Amino acid sequence: MPFGRWAAVSHPELDEITVDDVLHALADPTRRAIVRLLQAEGDRPCGTFGLPVAASTLSHHFRALRKGGIIRQYDEGRQRMNTLRTDELDKKFPGLVAAVLAAGN
Amino acid sequence: MPFGRWAAVSHPELDEITVDDVLHALADPTRRAIVRLLQAEGDRPCGTFGLPVAASTLSHHFRALRKGGIIRQYDEGRQRMNTLRTDELDKKFPGLVAAVLAAGN
């Protein structure tokens, strides 16, 4: 478990993450859009995704992705950053995230 | 839309089924067990899956699979039969169901 920069929010350990968690986390087009943008452009702060949803809704989506083991969040200055855990997840569920993202928006 | 033997319950058309529907339907180990048994042994009636859950719970799971486009149900005599729609789904979401089932129980 990393210390320091992950301390602000809790993240499930890889061995705690179930298939169900991953599927629930990805069963939403806004959340898949977040994952795609992180894949394409790397880590970025919550406020910079340019998605047409309210801040509170977006906050809910980031939380769902975090609880589902899809992203890690860490604080950098005043910004909450997001980074993908898909390399980690691929060890446990090879190809799952890619298959879901390939299935459509 | 087939007539007759599908008439007892409603099923979404293929073009109505979303990625989210499929993921929600498969985000449960009992529902994945139902799909696996249908894949392995073909169509079978609701009461013959041998799963350790209450009849009302099982009924909920069949409904979730039906609404998510994973199975079709039809009545045969007094039995409600279940058949997979995964060939159909694969045309719309190639490899998605297989990837989810491969990810774990």
Summarize the helices and strands and which ones pair or pack.
Two copies of one chain form a homodimer.
Chain A: H1 19-26, H2 29-41, E1 44-45, H3 55-67, E2 71-76, E3 79-84, H4 86-92, H5 96-102
Helix pairs in contact in A: 1-3
What's the quick description here?
Chains A, B: Keywords: DNA-binding. Two copies of one chain form a homodimer. The first copy, chain A, has 105 residues and is α+β, with helices and mostly antiparallel strands.
Polypeptide structure, described:
- Two copies of one chain form a homodimer.
- With 105 residues, chain A is α+β, with helices and mostly antiparallel strands.
- Chain A has one domain (17-103): Winged helix-like DNA-binding domain superfamily/Winged helix DNA-binding domain (Arc Repressor Mutant, subunit A).
- Helix content of chain A is 46%, strand content 13%.
- The first copy, chain A, contains five helices and three strands.
- The first copy, chain A, has helices at residues 19-26, 29-41, 55-67, 86-92, 96-102, and strands spanning 44-45, 71-76, 79-84.
- In chain A, a hairpin with a 2-residue loop joins strand 2 (71-76) and strand 3.
- The longest helix of chain A is centred in the middle third of the chain and has 13 residues, at 29-41.
- The mean pLDDT of chain A is 92.
- Chains A, B: InterPro entries: ArsR-like_HTH, HTH_ArsR_DNA-bd_dom, WH-like_DNA-bd_sf, WH_DNA-bd_sf.
- Chains A, B: Residues 11-104 form the HTH arsR-type domain.
Keywords:
homodimer, about 100 residues, alpha+beta, Arc Repressor Mutant, subunit A, three-stranded antiparallel β-sheet, about 15% strand, DNA binding (chains A, B), DNA-binding transcriptional regulator, ArsR family (chains A, B)
